Amino acid sequence: MQQVINFIYAAVLAGTPLLFGTLGEILTEKVGNLNLGVEGMMFMGAAVGFACGYYTDSALLAVLGGFAAGALGGLIYAFLTVTLKANQNVTGLTLTIFGVGFGNMLGDYIMRHSPGNAAFVSEKVKAAFAKLNVPGISDLPFAGKLFFQYNVLVYLAIAIAILMYIFLQKTQAGLNLRAVGENPAAADAVSVPVTRYKYLAICVGGGISGLGGVYVSMTTTGGTWVYNCVNGLGWIAVALVIFAAWSPAKAIVGSYVFGGLSVLRHYVVLEIPVAIYAMLPFAATIVVLLVTSVRQSREKLQPKGCGINYDREER
Amino acid sequence: MRKANGKNEPLFRLVKLDSPSWKRGLAQRALALLLAMVCGALLLLVLRKNPVAVYWQMIVGSVGTKVALTNTIRMAIPLLITTLGITVAFKLRYWNIGGEGQVCLGAIAATYFALNFVGKVPSWLLFVIMFAAGALLGGLWAAIPAYFKAKFNTNETLFTLMLNYVAVYIIQYLREGPWMDPQQTGFPQIPRFPMEARLPKVLGVHVGWIIALVLVVLVYVYLRKTKHGYEIAVVGESMDTARYAGMDVKKIILRTIFISGALCGVAGMVQVSGADFTLTETVAGGVGFTAITVAWLAKLNPALILVVSFLFSMLEKGANSIQTVFNISNAAADVLTGIILFFMLGCEFFIRYRVVFRKKKQARDLETAITAAVPAAAQPESVPTQPEQEAKEGAECSR
Q1: Which residues in B lie closer than 8 A to residue A276 (C-beta atoms)?
Q2: CB of B346 less than 8 A from some CB of A
């Protein structure tokens, strides 16, 4: 029993950066833009968040810095695809190239310019991302570990998922946003400011993805910079959007399942080579892609305007 | 004339150009490249480096000496071949992001024969077998997502991407398991290729460069002069049109993507037997991703691909040299690549559209006076046609 709880606990920790990335991408796709730059924005968030945490010694600034960096990536993407109508696929890939390079360069720069070529955020910042410890509750048998011993970012991710669900499903602005993603021309005709919605959603979505990067550099690596630390998480997040059927609530489940796959080898010992274990999350993503496309549910769920730039004068 | 009072007229509007001239396009691209360099220079200034010195070092470090030039060409070979493969897929509007994995699989196939068939067949035959096996396995690897794309319309962007990771872990598995060199202790490695399985050199660089140049010509001919090439173009433009014309769309997708993957597989074979002489997870080394941007920048034109892939190899080699000389991370190459691409992407817009700013008040008054003088019946027609006329004028001026 304890083993199962440990496994779920580890799965949630490993799945949280995926959840941030997935949520950011869901918001972006809901407004009709397929941003393949999640990996890049996560790298930007990871490096800038780390830089803020290291130089300002403030956990809050690390989180805000990571968010801002991701949002900046989103802004570049939004400017190119919404205003300049560039191809969304190529722009997203470029954002990934840029973001991965930028993140590694900045992280590397900090490492090279710190004593002993090793930079760690202070104990104070690290403590802010340590696991929760509420006296009485966190020590409860089973439930304590299962629900009340995560770091603050885990709860933040869940909160964002719930808020996004409420926003998209229950508010007028959320309805407008979805309308822009489904049919921008119709939304435009009833004077929904299409461009403003797109910019805002893409930037906020990028910021949320950036938080996933902060999670990586602050908790996964333990508050230091590891070269190539994001390593494909952003790409899995893009695929998870399909798995989650563009729903923030389902994204929580999907992310934790994939987090579980990536830590499986520490908990389930089978006679399988390490490389095959490492392959699992990616192979599982492929299976998800296949199943959803064979069932053809993708057609119904993906926002209709996704991937196509809206040009007001070309109706 | 509600518009003429100026309040409702936007600050600027866009006029789509019917036939953008290539001279104007070239000038704008050059300007975009310059702006990207300026942007990169600002970044270098932030890092407290002299941008001019860094840029100069990138040129010297990539083509300044014979050794550097040889290395740059060696880096350009897999990039060039992979880009050709990606180009074939992109012509079909099939987003093959799996070049990386297809290169790996080509390298795996070549390695198998290099390790097991030396001495059993003549050297030239061994190369032919390695070449064919690399192409075949790369092609088959690419054909998996293509099959599901054709059959179930599965998202190929993500499928091909995920297969990259799977391919890399297959190499890791082989390296740590069945193909591990028993004579090596410590870090598990796949044995180095025997001399008979290493590509010979011509003019200081392995023959891969000749293979690459031949493939440039072949791909050009294939895409531009054959029935297959025509079918690819039609399916790429519109699947419905292709179906209406009686083409077997599924077959065309499968065949084209097989060729795309086969070319990437050849790149893997050339890299592993021409440069690396052993198989590691970094055999593709990001080539599959760089190829996408090269293909796009070169407008899927094989001749331009030759030029652009060489420039990108210069960028990468140059970045390696500034790493040692100026103590800048070689990730700087990716940053610079990204910035250049951002500007190129943005620049496309100004090639396709012309921005027309709101006229000054005086000019507007004049226009109002003229339109007032024209008989009322003519007005509704004269207003909408104005942008078209300006577009024509614009196109003519630029010619």
Answers
A1: 169, 173
A2: yes
The answer to whether residue B356 neighbours chain A at the CB level (below 8 Å) is no
CB atoms within 10 A of CB B65: 11
First to last CA, chain B: 33
Calpha distance A80→B387 (Å, rounded): 24
Residue for token digits 């899995």?
A236
Reading phi first (left if > 0) and then psi (alpha if -120 to 50, else beta), residue B48 is in: left
The neighbouring-strand residues paired with B353 are B16
Helical H segments across chain B, by residue range:
22-46, 51-59, 66-91, 99-116, 123-152, 156-176, 208-225, 227-237, 239-244, 249-271, 287-297, 302-326, 332-352, 361-373, 379-398
**What token pair was written down for A268?**
């389930």
Q: Do B169 and A275 touch (CB under 8 A)?
A: yes
| Average pLDDT score, chain B | 82
Q: How far is B295 from chain A (nearest CA, A)?
A: 11
Each residue's pLDDT, cut to its tens digit, for chain A (315 residues) gives: 778 888 899 999 999 999 999 999 999 999 999 999 999 999 999 999 999 999 998 889 999 999 999 999 999 999 999 999 888 888 998 999 999 999 999 998 888 888 877 788 888 888 888 887 777 777 777 777 777 778 889 999 999 999 999 999 999 999 999 999 999 999 999 999 999 999 999 999 999 999 999 999 998 888 888 888 888 899 889 888 887 888 999 999 999 998 998 888 778 777 778 888 888 888 888 888 888 788 765 555 677 777 778 887 765
> Candidates 1.10.1450, 2.60.120, 1.10.3470, 1.20.1260; correct CATH number of B50-327?
1.10.3470
Q: Hey, where are the domains in chain B?
A: 1-48+331-399, 50-327
| Residue of A286, A291, A292 for testing the chain B interface, max B β-carbons within 10 Å | A286
Q: Per CATH, is A2-301 categorized as 1.10.3470?
A: yes
The residues spanned by each domain of chain A are: 2-301
Does the beta-carbon distance from B329 to A109 stay under 8 Å?
yes
pTM equals 0.83
pLDDT digits (tens, 9 = 90+) for B346-385: 888 888 777 777 766 666 666 666 666 655 444 444 444 4
Question: Could you tell me which residues come within 8 angstroms of residue B321 by beta carbon, excluding any fewer than 6 positions away?
Answer: B57, B58, B60, B61, B62, B68
Name the packing angle between helices A88-112 and B287-297 (round to 10°).
130
